[in-house]
Amino acid sequence: MVLTSSTASHLIIAPSSNSDFIHVFAFTVEQFGLVLATILVTILGGLASPQTRFREVVIAAIVLAAIACVIFAWTIGLPIAVWPEI
């Protein structure tokens, strides 16, 4: 993952390969849970474009996290932590 700055106020995260965000998800899902890992990866992916609207990315992240929980944790019944264990 490469961090660049096109202006002083806008940070762009340019993935060096398509698997960078998959690695972030894989390393965070066990510690942070499915919901927070999904939100983190979606927001990081949204930062890869300078045209991203932060509000839309946050809404998309919350919706995707909810869909992931419904599909993987409750419908399929995968033994995955939805929330981090305290």
Radius of gyration, whole Å: 14 Å
Count of runs of 4 or more consecutive helical residues? 2
Task: Give the termini distance in whole angstroms.
Answer: 29 Å
User: Could you spell the SSE succession in H and E letters?
Assistant: EEHH
Structural class, please? mainly alpha
Please give the order of strands in the largest beta sheet: 1-2
Query: How much β-strand is present in the residues?
Result: 5-15%
Whole-number total of structural domains = 1
Overall average pLDDT: 83
Could you characterize what this model shows?
- The chain is mainly α.
- The chain has one domain.
- Helix content is 57%, strand content 9%.
- It has two helices and two strands, in the order E-E-H-H.
- It has helices at 20-46, 54-75, and strands at residues 2-5, 11-14.
- Strand 1 (2-5) and strand 2 form a beta hairpin.
- The longest helix has 27 residues, at 20-46.
- The termini are far apart.
Provide the fold topology:
Layout: E1 2-5, E2 11-14, H1 20-46, H2 54-75
Antiparallel strand pairs: 1-2
